[in-house]
Amino acid sequence: MDTFLDRILDTKSEEIQHLYQQDDLLTKPVQHSTKPSLYESFKRDDQLSIIAEIKRASPSKGDINIGIEPPEQAQLYEDAGASAISVLTDKPYFKGSIDDLVDVQHNVNVPVLCKDFILDPIQLKRAKQAGASVVLLIAAALSPERLNDLYEQATALGLEVLLEVHNEAELDIALSIGATIIGINNRDLMTFNVDLSVTESLIDRIQDPDKVIISESGFRTKDDAERVAKAGADGILVGESFMKTDDVEGALSQLRVPTTRRGSS
Ligand SMILES: O=C(O)c1ccccc1NCC(=O)[C@H](O)[C@H](O)COP(=O)(O)O
After folding, report:
1. Which family is annotated (predicted)?
2. Which domains occur in the chain, in start order?
3. Residue from 187, 193, 216, 236 whose mutation best tests the ligand 1 pocket (most atoms within 8 A of CB)
């Protein structure tokens, strides 16, 4: 039986065909990003770095905050201390758009992540042209060969890659590719179940202290943040709880807990 992720990926394949019909995507030169490196800024931080997400809606929750103005929300995030902004650019399932990313990256100075289901190099080019400095690659959505190929093409375009995993097999692939920024998604993309223990159990397999590890999904409270910081995460990615609050600064600052360097006791 098809999972929801399979449905999303089918829709993406159709979208990719349309992208190949856009002349400007194929011919326009890519822009040089002026944003700082996500890897460097997360490594320097001794508190949990936060990627704050623009997320209007989602497959698991339906509408979350439909009326949001992405550039204003991103500015609020940056002012509150977010170290990077994630923009969901998928339209059918998350009600986002690539124009949201264009607007956001004009308004902030921190790295901007293009959060989409990237299956093809043309999506990397579109993200770069829109002004993204980081792209998401999801191990569950790609064969290991395709993942490696897209990883290399993204890097060649000057994009940083957040390589997302959810289980040991995917993590081993990410490590064999040499990914430097690894996202551990606490949300199972097949069932939508969210469990922070996914981060706690996978992080022990990452021995290299030079990796940046980002725990994704399901963060609401200071206790949640402390749990993954204690496990050794460098950062967290937060969407829904920031999109629903009237107090972005309070919600964000309570999650900026001290990190625990991996390898120290
Ligand atoms: O959020 C979903 O329902 C979802 C469903 C299928 C694929 C991906 C999905 N979310 C993408 C994300 O990874 C989250 O937007 C991100 O980690 C933030 O999560 P949260 O703080 O729980 O909104």
Report:
1. Belongs to the TrpC family.
2. 4-20+38-253 (3.20.20.70)
3. 187
